[in-house]
Structure formats: structure tokens, C-alpha cells
Amino acid sequence: MQGTQGRLAAAPYIAYVNLVTDAAVRSRRGRRMPERKPGRDPDVGGRKRLLEASLGLFAAKGYAATTVRDILRVAGVTAPVLYYHFGSKEGLFVALLRDGLQRVDTAVQQALGEAGSAAERVRAYCVVHATIRREYAEFTWIIDAIIAGPPEAAPKFDFKGVFVRRVGELADLVRTAVAAGEFRACEPIATALALLSVVDMAVRTRLIEGSLAGVDDPLDGMLNVVLGGLATGGPLRLRSRSRKKQASA
């Protein structure tokens, strides 16, 4: 019963993402990405410079407004270098997303391995996501614009699949905490969506940092509200690892 309610709660958002993603896929049928040709790298270090240059440009101008010429100029490379490594501007943007996801996945596995209780693992998952995403806070509005914009202009990337996977991972951690008696009985998917909303808001506050007087760490405070309400035996304040280290120093 709980699983059915969770799927119903998440259905409107997932249906919307399905619609956007399916439209993007349909618009790309028949199109072929430039193939990367085998051979010697035409510019050693060019891949790294392209990634660094495009990261700043995409964050400042957005995906659609950033041109290949802009990227080549800032990176200091020629067009063949970009086509060799990524095939196109779209390929470069997708590579940035995949590199970021890989970094998050690696950090999550390390954090979960170091966390103690099931409740702490839930918190660690959220903190890692928020911490890394905050470094790329400017990308938040870019992703929003891509999903809300015309499908034919969107880069070919499975945003829906990433979102569904994150919800599933966090829901599994919540189920474990409930089974261990550390969380009250709750709908895992709905709880995962609530926690990911906390992560998202913590990232977005980075864009208006300094405008929230009296709030030292929005992420810490919001997680305490949600996780405290889930804890069995009354409210529970779960401190972040960084604060634990400060307290023990």
C-alpha cells in the first residue's frame, strides 16, 4: 500500500519528465552525431582545457547561447581537437554531466562506507549530493532551462533516468533506516522526494547566498527538520561530519 501511494505521489513529476525526454528522443531520430575518429590526440591536454572552458561558459551564458567558437577561444584549441574528443558541443556538455555524476557516485560510496547508523547513511547521501552540486550551482538554472525548453534544442542526455535512479537509491536507504527502527514508518519514495527537495533548495540558496540573514547552513537546518521528524523516540539532531570533526577538535 505504501509503495502504491509513493508511486502516485511521484507520478506527476515523473510523467512530466517522461514527456520531455520522449519528445527529445523523437526529435533526434534520424540524426547522427559526428563520429570520433581513431588516431593520435591532436592536442595533448586539450580535453581538460575544453572541459574547464566550457564549464565556465555554460554557467555564464547557458547551453544554447554558448557557441563552439566561444569554447575554442577560451580553451585555446582548434576545432579538430573538440571534434576529436567530444564530436560536438552537445558531446562536450554531456561529458561534463557524466563527469559530475561519476564524481558524485564515487563520493557517495565513500561517505556511505564511513557512515555509522542507517539514519547517518541517509544524511550522508544528501550531504554529498548537496556539497558537490553546490560547486556547480549555476548549472541548476541551465538544467531547468533545458528541461523546460524546446526538446529539439536539448542535448541528448537521460535526465529522467538520473532522477529516477537517485530517488530509488535514497528510498532504499530510507527503507533500511525504517527496518532498523531508526525512522518512523513512512513511504520511502515520498520521503526520498522530500529529502531530494531539501538538497535542491540547499543548492539554489547558493545562488542567493547572503540574502538569508541568520541562516548559517540551510542544508544542515533543513535536514535536521526532516530527519528529526522521521527519527523514532522524538526529534533527533543528526550533525554533519564536518561539525562532528569540529566538535572533536
Spell out the key features of this protein.
Tetracycline Repressor, domain 2; mainly alpha; elongated; disordered C terminus; 0% strand; 249 residues
How would you characterize the overall build of this protein?
It is a single chain. With 249 residues, the chain is mostly helical. Helix 2 crosses helix 3 (68-75), helix 6 (118-135) runs parallel beside helix 9 (188-204) and helix 8 (159-179) packs across helix 9. The protein is 69% helix and 0% strand. The protein has eleven helices and no strands. The protein has helices at 2-28, 46-61, 68-75, 79-85, 89-114, 118-135, 139-148, 159-179, 188-204, 218-230, 241-248. It is elongated. The protein has a domain at 117-249: Tetracycline Repressor, domain 2.
Topology summary:
Layout: H1 2-28, H2 46-61, H3 68-75, H4 79-85, H5 89-114, H6 118-135, H7 139-148, H8 159-179, H9 188-204, H10 218-230, H11 241-248
Helix pairs in contact: 1-9, 2-3, 2-5, 5-6, 6-8, 6-9, 6-10, 8-9, 9-10
Shape: elongated
Main pleated-sheet profile: none
Task: Give start-end ranges of low-pLDDT stretches.
Answer: 1-39, 235-249
CATH topology of the domain at 117-249: Tetracycline Repressor, domain 2
Quick one: how many beta strands? 0
Class based on secondary structure composition and strand pairing: mainly alpha
